[in-house]
């Protein structure tokens, strides 16, 4: 891969497309001769002679007329087969594409380096996706080396169909729509769709011209906001799991330029309302994280087996057991500031207090983790604050 990238600056991926020769039409005589050779192993002498006579009749009769029609088509199309093959092999097929049409299978790196392991689907999926998106960027910049046999360039057009392409179902024939564009050609979609438990989530993988990192593609990440329970005797805190469906929808709407301001405002208010309700519930003793902690500790004290609820991979992936990637807390409204380290190695601690005229924040991340950047997170957070204020001004809230 590195050697390929080193050569990529010499040529552009699609630079030879217009100079490639058209698909030729073979001679009828030669094709029929080869056909007869191919059927020979499957026929006895009598059967072969019968087929030979049929072929001869075809060649001298309707076959010649069909050949002329094909030659006429070839004069009008650089590839006389292309449309036909697409329809017959793919678009006219009335059976599921998955398994029947789409090519797939285990790759060597999965087989040897990534043996099956519970609880790693999100991590491995994001890493694989990141590598795929880097390949997408190579195509966008036309830095993927041209495939060649010797010094002869090969057609690279199918690489344009790897991304931003969809198959639209039809009654008798499907259709293909392609939105891929190189950087020199113009805008190209940069979002991905993720299907999870019957729902489809869409988010943009580019931010300010840069590709998301694998941890960012852990989006949405598990995070929590501290709620105080000091309404109660010796009350301390409860967990508000602030990464809600409503919050994700709002973030997606803010990243989608086709979403109207009204829709963005609506999604923002929905997210606010959901968060406020959770905060109220948690502060009034109606949270669930501390409850689950109590249940697990009871099981431990009673020397009972650990309930499956707490060994479920989704439990820790969503933050259970202290595995929150983002740990946040409102310190208060005074000039007191405090911080703690992230709860996980690839996580963040984000603590803030609110004054009349400003927000004061402190963000922590492990320097030993190359995936995190506390300074960048703070910058992006205030960038988001600015977007929110603009949205509120426009909405006259």
Q: In words, what does this structure look like?
A:
The model is unreliable at 1-8 (pLDDT under 50). This protein has 397 residues and is an alpha+beta fold. It is elongated, with a radius of gyration of 30 Å. Helix 2 runs antiparallel to helix 3, helix 9 (245-255) runs antiparallel to helix 10 and helix 10 crosses helix 13. 41% of the residues lie in helices and 15% in strands. Strand 1 and strand 2 form a beta hairpin.
Element layout with pairings:
Layout lengths: L1 H6 L20 H12 L5 H16 L1 H15 L5 H10 L5 H4 L7 H6 L7 H20 L7 E2 L2 E2 L11 E4 L6 E4 L12 E6 L2 E6 L1 E2 L2 E2 L11 E6 L8 E4 L4 H11 L5 H23 L5 H13 L11 H5 L8 E7 L15 E7 L4 E6 L9 H22 L2
Parallel strand pairs: 9-11, 11-12
Antiparallel strand pairs: 1-2, 3-4, 5-6, 7-8, 9-10, 12-13
Helix pairs in contact: 2-3, 9-10, 10-13
């Amino acid at each position: 891969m590195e050697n390929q990238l080193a050569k990529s600056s010499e040529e552009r991926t699609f630079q030879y497309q217009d100079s490639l020769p058209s698909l030729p039409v073979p001679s009828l005589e030669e094709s029929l001769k080869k056909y007869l050779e191919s059927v020979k192993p499957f026929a006895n002498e009598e059967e072969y002679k019968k087929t030979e006579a049929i072929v001869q009749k075809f060649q001298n009769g309707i076959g010649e007329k069909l050949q002329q029609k094909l030659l006429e088509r070839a004069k009008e199309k650089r590839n006389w087969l292309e449309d036909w093959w697409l329809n017959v092999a793919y678009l006219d097929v009335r059976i599921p594409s998955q398994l029947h049409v789409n090519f797939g299978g285990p790759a060597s790196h999965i087989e040897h380096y990534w043996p099956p392991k519970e609880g790693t689907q999100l991590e491995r999926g994001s890493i694989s996706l990141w590598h795929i998106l880097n390949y997408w960027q190579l195509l966008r910049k036309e830095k993927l080396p041209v495939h060649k046999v010797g010094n002869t360039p090969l057609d690279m057009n199918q690489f344009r169909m790897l991304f931003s392409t969809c198959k639209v179902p039809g009654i008798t024939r499907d259709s293909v729509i392609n939105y891929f564009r190189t950087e020199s050609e113009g805008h190209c979609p940069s979002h991905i769709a993720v299907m999870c438990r019957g729902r489809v989530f869409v988010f943009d993988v580019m931010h300010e011209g840069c590709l998301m990192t694998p941890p960012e593609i852990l989006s949405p990440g598990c995070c929590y906001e501290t709620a105080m329970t000091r309404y109660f005797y010796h009350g301390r805190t409860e967990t508000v799991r602030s990464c809600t469906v409503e919050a994700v929808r709002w973030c997606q709407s803010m990243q989608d330029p086709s979403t109207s301001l009204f829709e963005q405002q609506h999604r923002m208010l929905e997210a606010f309302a959901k968060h406020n309700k959770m905060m109220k519930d948690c502060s009034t003793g109606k949270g669930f994280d501390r409850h689950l902690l109590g249940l697990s500790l009871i099981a431990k004290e009673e020397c009972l087996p650990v309930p499956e609820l707490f060994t479920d991979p989704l439990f820790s992936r969503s933050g259970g057991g202290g595995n929150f990637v983002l740990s946040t807390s409102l310190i208060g409204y005074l000039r007191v500031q405090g911080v703690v380290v992230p709860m996980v190695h690839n996580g963040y601690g984000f603590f803030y207090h609110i004054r009349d005229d400003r927000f004061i924040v402190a963000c922590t991340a492990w320097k030993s983790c190359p995936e995190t950047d506390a300074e960048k997170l703070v910058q992006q957070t205030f960038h988001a604050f600015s977007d929110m204020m603009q949205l509120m001004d426009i909405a006259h809230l």
